Amino acid sequence: IQVLENVYRFALGSIAGGVGATAVYPIDLVKTRMQNQRTGSFIGEVMYRNSWDCFKKVIRHEGPLGLYRGLLPQLMGVAPEKAIKLTVNDFIRDKLMDNSGNIRLPYEIVAGGCAGASQVIFTNPLEIVKIRLQVAGEIATGRKVRALSVLKDLGLFGLYKGARACFLRDIPFSAIYFPVYAHMKSNLADEDGYNSPMTLFISGLIAGVPAASLVTPADVIKTRLQVVAREGQTTYTGDISDAARKIYVEEGPRAFWKGTAARVLRSSPQFAVTLLTYEILQRALYVDFGGTRPTGSEQHVPSAGVMDKEKPTTPDHVGGYQAAIPILEGIETKFGLCLPKFRIASQPQV
């Protein structure tokens, strides 16, 4: 049963991850190019003044499709990546919940951190190919750079270049994101504990702001380690400390926060769309594996009349009456009728 449940969650997470990644991919491309832009190692290298300037220049020089450069390998990798992250987070949260279905904040952080660590096996190869395709459009050589050629150049071990920086980014991100998302869901739920699609989206959006912004320095280092340096650019040995030191010395501390706005604008809506899609799919395609339904997924339908307040005291009427309440109330509402109701029978005096 546990295996089937994990397969079920993996499938839903794959679909949700693909939808979320496609929705915000142009912003991701802008973020990558802004982070790769160096200001201290190459004269005349600054191509973009800001994220908006980068967006306009991509449209002007590469066309609208340029905003989706590298999307295909992204989709091929993001499905298992997001699926693993969501599945591991849900699995560990379920194991760490107490008997009443609650989970302590430290355990939430542990679950999120484990989810972030588990995805790196897919994330790093996916992102190094994506980043090199995204940056390739900056070079006006006329040579087409394709995913297969990037894979051939990198080789198996090359696909995990910058993996340590990827861990440094993804573990804190998920450790922040999932607990904040869970608490925002709880705070935005209605009085019956139900979350509408809008509250799910807002929860995901808000949770992405601190998670995405606080790990930007690690994302900048990872990007620099994974791109191919052009002539005249600073090169890095592949070590996090070497990259961090050179970025700080040559460009100053502000360089670690390059692309923060684009990263937040990309990550927040991406995870909002991903988590919204994931939760909606769980509701629409719910399968009971003997556990609990997702929090906030059960909607309480309030009674339209007062029938439920006038319950019969006669024992042989209780079962049928309770089952008929929603049907009778629906008839009353639809046709404007007023059906007879049970009343408490007076006890005969002895």
From TrEMBL:
GO MF, any single term: L-aspartate transmembrane transporter activity
Keywords: Calcium, Membrane, Mitochondrion, Mitochondrion inner membrane, Repeat, Transmembrane, Transmembrane helix, Transport
Localization, UniProt: Mitochondrion inner membrane
GO biological process terms on file: malate-aspartate shuttle
Bilayer disposition of the protein: Multi-pass membrane protein
Residues in Solcar repeats: 4-95, 103-187, 195-284
InterPro entries: MCP, MCP_dom_sf, MCP_transmembrane, Mito_Solute_Carrier
Gene3D superfamilies named among the record's database cross-references: Mitochondrial carrier domain
Gene Ontology terms: cellular component: mitochondrial inner membrane
Subunit record text: Homodimer (via N-terminus).
Family to which this protein belongs: Belongs to the mitochondrial carrier (TC 2.A.29) family.
Protein's name in the database: Putative mitochondrial solute carrier protein
High-level lineage: Eukaryota, Metazoa, Ecdysozoa, Arthropoda, Hexapoda
